[in-house]
Amino acid sequence: AQSVTQLDSQVPVFEEAPVELRCNYSSSVSVYLFWYVQYPNQGLQLLLKYLSGSTLVKGINGFEAEFNKSQTSFHLRKPSVHISDTAEYFCAVSFSGGYQKVTFGIGTKLQVIP
Amino acid sequence: DAGVIQSPRHEVTEMGQEVTLRCKPISGHDYLFWYRQTMMRGLELLIYFNNNVPIDDSGMPEDRFSAKMPNASFSTLKIQPSEPRDSAVYFCASSFFWKGKGTEAFFGQGTRLTVV
Predict the structure, then answer these.
(1) For chain A, which ranges sit under pLDDT 70?
(2) Count of CB contacts below 8 A, A vs B?
(3) Residue A84 class from Cβ within 10 Å (0-12 exposed, 13-18 middle, 19+ buried)?
(4) Does residue B8 contact residue B68 with C-beta atoms inside 8 Å?
């Protein structure tokens, strides 16, 4: 079975500082990886995804993530955060074949401090 | 497309009452998911459908929960009878599975259920 671990439940960071949100996954087969963002009282929306190819994936709002197969990680980064990035971020994994069941991590709350 | 549409956005009901949550997926999508989000458990997958057929309902917490997808454009999640611990935000999501490429799930705005 696949699973996702987000190591930090909350991450406070000052505005314009860099941030990294950590995500590790476990799976015995090839996977697709995703990062979603949830703003208050909203549904989840996709930030970026890794399907194959280049291990560095760029997404919306200046975010990027790097797939590291040996460390089974998919950490999310942004070089300079804005107040508007305050939200909850979810890492997710699904199998690359067969039925598409998506498993989400517990989420990381990013709080950008002015 | 208007995206995934859920109704109602908010529901307050008394313990013991039946609650029905509704979802209209994005046209053309062949997967539909129901999730529940709480502070304690995060985002849990309850059940998902492929081409209107339930594939995995192992996340449905109890027999009080049931879900149907009578056609490609509509799904319901029913709780009967409801209990206070069912209070949560329920999300519906849909996706199109493109073999070998994968795709992301598109989420609705959610239904905030409060059982008093």
Answers:
(1) 1, 96-100
(2) 59
(3) exposed
(4) no
